[in-house]
Amino acid sequence: MSPVRTVDISYVAVPAKAARPPEDVKLNAMEAQWLVLPLLQYILFFEGEQLPPFDTVVQSLRSSLSATLAKFAPLAGKLVHLADTGDVAIRCSASSSDDGVRFVVAESEADVRRLAGDEEHDVQTFERLVPELDMSELPASLLAAQATRLEGGGVALGVTVHHAVADGRSLWRFVEAWAAACRGDTPPPMPPPCFDRLRVRLPGGEELARSVLRKYAPNLPVVTTPSILQEDRLRFIRWTFTLDSNHIKRLKRHIVRLGEAQGAPSCRPPSSFVAVAALAWTCFVRCRSVPADEDVFLFFFADVRGRLDPPAGAEYFGACLSGCLGMVPARELHGERALAAASAAVQGAIREMTEDPAGGWEFLRIPGAVPMDRLLNVSGSSSFRAYEAADFGWGRPRRTVPVRMNQDGQVELVRARDADGVQVTVSVLRRVHMDAFKAQFLDLLE
Description:
Elements: E1 4-12, E2 24-26, H1 29-32, E3 40-46, H2 54-69, E4 78-82, E5 87-91, E6 101-111, H3 112-117, H4 123-128, E7 140-141, E8 143-151, E9 154-161, H5 168-183, H6 205-216, E10 237-243, H7 245-261, H8 272-286, E11 295-303, E12 321-329, H9 338-355, H10 366-369, E13 375-380, E14 399-402, E15 410-415, E16 422-428, H11 431-445
Parallel strand pairs: 6-8, 11-13, 13-15
Antiparallel strand pairs: 1-6, 2-5, 3-9, 3-14, 4-5, 4-7, 8-9, 10-16, 11-12, 15-16
Helix pairs in contact: 2-5, 7-8, 7-9, 8-9, 8-11
């Protein structure tokens, strides 16, 4: 672990001339659950000759963040508890001296080449390269950023966003807009982000959202994370694997061959997400002692913006996710055709979601319904443009890393720096499990 020293803290406000959204934007039921769940946190590491002096980087990031908030104004607000109705809402009005997005400037003796190059994460240093948001009591801020000067001429840009107001797709859309503003590019023509929570229509409307809050956050304005999700994440071992385009092609072909060998007629290649999720699930089960006749589980989220009736729209900015659960007996992931079995189970869970897109909206029921030691949680997506979107004018990040991984058995996916590949980050509690996972992962890719 390398120490990180805070140099300056300021607040970046929405430009005075920007259009102000309605003062209170109430969370819908799909988002209300996220109030008690951990934050979204990423670090972007930059290095190289294109990188300007650190003070210039900080100035560019601050000014472009302000310009970006003109369209993303709610992110400069706070989550508040409306005691008279029982709702939780995003409050967008300026009301105090710390109104705006907290922007931290820091420095560290940690070497950027080590942090951005090592496959195993320096978890404790990474945690200090992203700003914290206090979620324990409302009002709570929604967004914070941190720029850290690193040894070796590098910069770490840490971004933290409250998960109740953004999922991964929303986060990367915001980063892309911020990066474009920093480059000075004219943004491509697209609809502005939409924060209207009424776009997500669930039976029960506002009263359903209130019932979710009463169920999962009964002590508002105090917010408590469920005990089942309160693991000591600093003890986890985290490792990043990168699958290039050739790895992905071979993996898909292998799954097709296994499916055809099982008699599947004209088996189509799986998507990159399905193929990589199947690979990770198989490795997870094989590195643990699960009895052959016991079921094992894979959980992941599906973006349902375009699947709801009526659709929320691609421009919807929020957490618009439905949970998907795959299940197979452990023995099926130990045999020669394990990848095909895992792939089929993932595709089956996707089909169920397609038939009822909102069916998995209350995903917080899952932790109490399945044994967590036999559950792999896959978050993120192989479609998230984490490198392409984050070119702030200094080239793509040398590395992008998820910071907040909270479970023994969690996998985070983003599109790799090589745009045709997939970056896979794995979190486990025990070294022996990580060693076994790595061995299985590399073996199955051959």
